[in-house]
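Re-running the complex after MR caught last week's input typo. The corrected sequence lines follow. Everything else is unchanged.
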Amino acid sequence: MDIKLDYSLTSEEFSELVAAVEWKEYTKEQVQKALDNSMYLVKATADGKLAGMGRVVGDYSIVCMLSDVCVKPEFQGKGIGLEIIKELKKLIENGVKEGEKMQVELTPTAGKEGFYAKAGYKYNPDKITGMYLWIKK
Ligand SMILES: CC(C)(COP(=O)(O)OP(=O)(O)OC[C@H]1O[C@@H](n2cnc3c(N)ncnc32)[C@H](O)[C@@H]1OP(=O)(O)O)[C@@H](O)C(=O)NCCC(=O)NCCS
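Corrected-run output:
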């Protein structure tokens, strides 16, 4: 399977992926605004077919969060989700300058902690309910 990542996610593709994983849907205008205001967007295709996405929202300085990470059910379990969150991490790292640090947060759906842990995200349920990662340079 030929898996490719790029940054060209459209509102139609966002809505198609959201529907595929049965998440709440939004108006086209809302989705476009969300994409326009995202720090980073990643789209994955598998053999040319739309397979998954992820995005990062935040202040470009101190804090950001992973959002809308999903892979269509027929493409799950093939390493695509991990590629998406690793690429998002790389994009965040590229934006952090020497001497700076940025906190990346995410709220995993129950049972998905192990997936995010594969990309280095920390889970400390005694202290914090979400997951996080500090990017420091
Ligand atoms: C969660 C999701 C994005 C994972 O994507 P995926 O492409 O199926 O995952 P991958 O194949 O890249 O898995 C990467 C690794 O994480 C592991 N993993 C995947 N889901 C996991 C889970 N729930 N718990 C623990 N490990 C998990 C895989 O076993 C794999 O491990 P390996 O590298 O040792 O083989 C996908 O299942 C999905 O879209 N689910 C529905 C939407 C959703 O819940 N999104 C997350 C919102 S927080």
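None of the earlier attempt is carried over here. The helical segments are 11-20, 28-36, 80-95, 113-117. The pocket of coenzyme A is lined by residues 21, 69-71, 76-82, 108-109, 111-112, 114-115, 118 (CB under 6 Å).
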